[in-house]
Design a protein that fits this description.
The complex is a heterotetramer of chains A (193), B (100), C (628) and D (516). With 193 residues, chain A is mostly helical. By secondary structure, chain C is mainly alpha-helical. Helix content of chain C is 74%, strand content 3%. Chain C starts with a helix and ends with a helix. About 2% of the residues of chain C have low confidence. The chains are: A mainly alpha (193), B mainly alpha (100), C mainly alpha (628), D mainly alpha (516).
Amino acid sequence: MNFPFIPDEEDRIMIEGYMEQIAFLILALFAVVGGLITVTHRHPIYCALGLILCFLSISGFYAMLGAPFLAAVQVIIYAGSIMTLFVFVIMLMDLTREDLKMPPSKFSTVVASFLGFVLLLEMLMIIGGGFLTGKMGSWTPEKVDSVGHTRVLAQVLFTEYLYPFEIISFVLVVALVGAILLGKKKLHLGGKE
Amino acid sequence: MVPLSWYLSLSAILFFLGVVGMMTRRNTIIMLMCIELMMNAANLTFVALSHYLHSMNGQMFVFFIVAIAAAEVSVGLAIIINLYRLKASVDPDDMNRLQG
Amino acid sequence: MEKFVWLIPAFPLIGVLINLFFGRWTGKKAHWIACLAVLGSFIVSLMVFSRVMQGETLNYDYFNWIWVGSFHANAGVLIDPLSALMLIVVTGVSFLIHVYSIGYMHDDPGYPRFFLYLNLFVFSMVSLVLANNFLLLYVFWEAVGLCSYLLIGFWFQKKSASDAGKKAFIVNRIGDFGFGLGIMMIFVVFGSIQFTEVFGMASGASVACLTAITLLLLLGAMGKSAQIPLYVWLPDAMEGPTPVSALIHAATMVTAGVYMIARCHVLFNLAPLTQNVIIWMGMLTAFFAATIALVQKDIKRVLAYSTISQLGYMFVGVGLGAYTAGIFHLATHAFFKALLFLGAGSVMHAMANETDMWKMGGLSKIMKYTSWTFLIACLAIAGIPPFAGFFSKEEILGAAWSAHRYEIYALGILTALMTAFYMFRVYFLTFKGTPRYNVHSHHAHESPWVMTFPLMVLAVFSVIAGWVGIGTHGGSWIHQFLNPVFTLPGSEHMAEAGHSGSEQLLLMGIAIAAALAGIGLAWQIYLKDIKQSDRMAAQFSGLHKVLTNKYYVDEFYDAVFVTPIKNISIALWRGFDAVVIDGTVNGIGWFVSIIGQLLRYFQSGYVRTYTTMFVIGVIAVLGFYLTR
Amino acid sequence: MPNSLGNFPILSVLTFLPALGALAFLAVPRNRESFFRQGAFAVSLLNFLISLLLLKGFIPSSAEMQFVEWRQWIPGLGASYHLGLDGITLFLVLLTTLISMIAILSSFSAINKKVKEYYISLLFLETGMIGVFLSLDMLLFYFFWEAMLIPMYFLIGIWGHERRIYAAVKFILYTMAGSAFMLVGILVMYFYHYHLTGAFSFDLLSWNTMELPFKLQFWLFLAFFVAFAIKVPLFPFHTWLPDAHVEAPTAGSVILAGVLLKMGTYGLLRFCIPLFPVATLQLLPYVCTLALIGIIYGGLVAMVQPDMKKLVAYSSVAHLGYVVLGLFVLNPQGMVGGLLQMVNHGLSTGALFLMVGMLYERRHTRLIEDFGGIAKVMPAYFAFFLIVTLSSIGLPMLNGFVGEFNIILGAFSYSVLYGVIANFGIIIAAVYMLWMFQRVMFGEVTREENKILKDLNLREYLVLIPLVILMFWIGIYPKPFISRMEPSINKIISRCQAGTTVDCQIPSGISMELNK
């Protein structure tokens, strides 16, 4: 880099790269902090908020990774609908104080975190170990940009993945019916209570 | 350019958080949230890989996972509400009727 | 000749079938069918005998029975002087006994069944004699064993009778074990089981093979003819009705062993070791059985041991190679032993089935015919000249002498003395002396003519049967008649030819002296003063006790064979079967259920434990993936 | 092979007629019990008559499969519906139809609860058994092999006596464990057939022509052997038999003893020996030792049994020890003797169980000491029981002798030691049978109940007479039976000889010293 710092073409790409990395780190920080809050905080409302934070940061990642439509989907469905559902349920159940004071037993947290840690280590080793190989697909970013991300998504969805698409719709209907049924007042699902 | 391994390590951490949450927390709602967290970690990996491997399959999967997650949360929460009505508690340890 | 030969076994078989299917209707008339059947076969055997006299023989196969691979066994008939003579003896004696048993079994509820079994026996015995191959011989050998089982155990209400029947069958089966193996060895060595073929190839086989075959055949003969180790069943067989003892355990079945050895003389001549075994076994049996007979109280037991002893004689004769002498003794013995048994039967019939001699006495005045015929039979068996026994026993002793087997000769003479002694002991105790039963309760009476007539016929035979053997060495009619059978290439040395005329007279003198001494002794002890026998019994009390208990042989067999086998099998059943095998099987079942219990613990119902297990699972998989 | 009865599919009819009958029974309401009895008997009688047609059409001199039926079943797997019959299976099928008919006839008075299901399971059992004997396609064979167990399980489990559940479960588990190994064996052969010829096939005839390396033959032989040894039952695997027999109803144990045990020996003869000749030779001494132990062990243990059915069960272990010994000495006498003894054992032990069943129906006890002096009370029963006992002892003039003598002769010509030990068996047989016969039949009538026992009724006569006639026929004139069996046996022996000459790494020391 020569002084007085006039970025030429490859300098610009390099700076952009740095910028990207910094943005990634910030978003990663937000995601991890959100996760931590969800896992550790006593009161479920704060957990829900932590989770929303995490979801938003992930949608940011999607944008960075050239999947703007997915970022939008993430924000709308996850942050929007699912988390509101959670908040509603938490409000609905207005947990009394002593419900929340029950700290998980010392022993199980130690064991759980140890196991979790071992799992993390293994995953990191796998990532680092170069185990992952995959054959390159045909959708280079340039091609995607030229056609437009959403159009590409639609094109793939309705040709290769038509069957799964139909099945998913069916699953959603089933979930819908299930949730409604479960929600009914006089619950007589055959249970005695 | 952010290298692929960063994304994967991040999702690993998120997954780790989800797993620990699932195992420790004594509140079913939080457990459900942790499941959501884990799913998102998986989504992140999918999108990252789909970006780096220039193939749309990853994003397709994410699309479906989101749908599944939505269905799952709705049904999960409905069950939790009923259990709450039943046992007046959200502690998973009280609900151990389904034992061998 | 083959046109009518098959009638001989056919008649009794028809008798069996009629009695079997129409048993209820024939009822009291069953004896007509039975006697006619046996008479028929007797007449046909006479015809056959006359044909054989003119030198005609026959070896004819009616149909092939079992043809498997190279093993050819077919149902065939072999007629030669030996089998013709045996036919006459068997059918003749059987007919007389059938007539006798009309009277003897008169008031027995199982009347038709008795004649059914008798006819079945005659059928099997006749077919045994006629068979022309080893397998057919073996078949009727066991069939005869079956008939003796049925007839001994005829009064099956009596436990002792059914036990005796079972014992007889099993001991015979042990004998047949050896016989069967012998036949198989013959087939393996010679490739065929036809008499003619096997005897033809006999000289070709190695001596060791032949000895093994003959020893196995001997085992069969021992079982059937009640020789030393396997004789225990004959004394117990006296549980059966007396005509049965007369027919089976005196005249016909027990002689089957001697007949078989005579029939296979070619094999036995080529196996000197076996012949030695036969001689010694025969002599020991004769001597040993005679000693036991000295002290027996039961009249039928005495006759049983005397049969064993006389069979021992026949085996000695056959063992020495003097087959003609053996068969001759067999024939004469059949007559007088049958007569003795029938006589004893009519005594028992008169004395309401009393068998203990010490409770009889002085019957000769009441039972004229029976006592006279019994006396004739005693003289015959003792070996007094004009009677049959003398000639046949003399032949055997002569054969022993000329074969320079002096120890055998000496034992033979001693046994002859003892035979004379115990036979006349029986005669004096039952017929002579003072009656030792209260005369009023038993109104002893002479048996009806249907029983005494056979006695008289047999008495006549016991006398004239011997004359057939008169004539200096080899000159007698019996020798001419049987020689063609026994001078086949196999038997080159002829025992009789050995000794000169004067020597023969000397031998006869010694034999007569021994017989007379025996009679005198018996007369001295049991007739002059009865007390003396008790005094002697007291003197030799130890020996007396051993003899009365038959050397404790039965107890010995029980202790050595029966009880250990029983314990082993119980141990096998309880121990091995139940504990070991079932144990392992049930053990596996129990083990599986234990594992089930363990697994149940994992389904604890706590959601969090399930998640932990998931995580452990993932870690394990990843770990495996990493370390591969 | 143009089957001489035109193209009438006799074997399929024979196999599936009982099953069709059973299906027809389903439609009939439960309470018409007499209909079920007559119906079942009619079906089995018809089946027996058809099997007699087999006898008429059978060409005695040929060793090839006759009345062959072949149709595509599962082309993808290479499995075909292939039925065939030769000298070996001819009499076994006849035995099955006869024994089933007699078993059905004998259970008229014995069974009065759940009559409909009883006769349905009996008929299905008959189908299964005939199917096992006739099928030449290994998949079909295995199908019938397993299908046959279920009705037998119900027969023992529902209509049995006190410990029936234990016995039924033990029976099923034992046989299943064995057939699991066999299934593995079948599959290995199936894939090896593909490896050799490039085409998948379950067909037995093509398997016969395969040359297997010795190592493979050894393990495959063991796999098949275990399944069949359990079924035979050979010495160490026999403990299920006494329980199954004691607990099964009369008809059940008649069929179990009469036919099911022959499945094992048939399997050995049809599959183990011809398919793996070299392994057969290598393992021959061990199998023969097991058989010999079975003979002596079965006999000894039978001696001390208090229960009549257990005694007969252990005697079956001894008898089938003979059969296996006969089959594995690989010479004509032994094998024909073994095959004939299979039929004889079916007749004599079947009859024995029928008679014990008759006593059980009258006195509801099987213990020997509960009886005594029956000969006086039931003379006709005494006569039949005497004949059957003598046949099972192996007395000449009866069927047992012909089979047993040939087996011992075969064993003797293979090795003298085997012959001698086997011959001991006939003494032991005489001991335990006569001892039981004496305790039951002879002696005083001690117990009151024994005094009023009725003698055989007409139906029981009908049940016993055919068996006794056959016993005498085989005993006196076995030629027709033997002449039909011999060609197929010689074919197997020549297959064994051929198998060993081809070079498939035969370990040293094995020579096919097949004597005459």
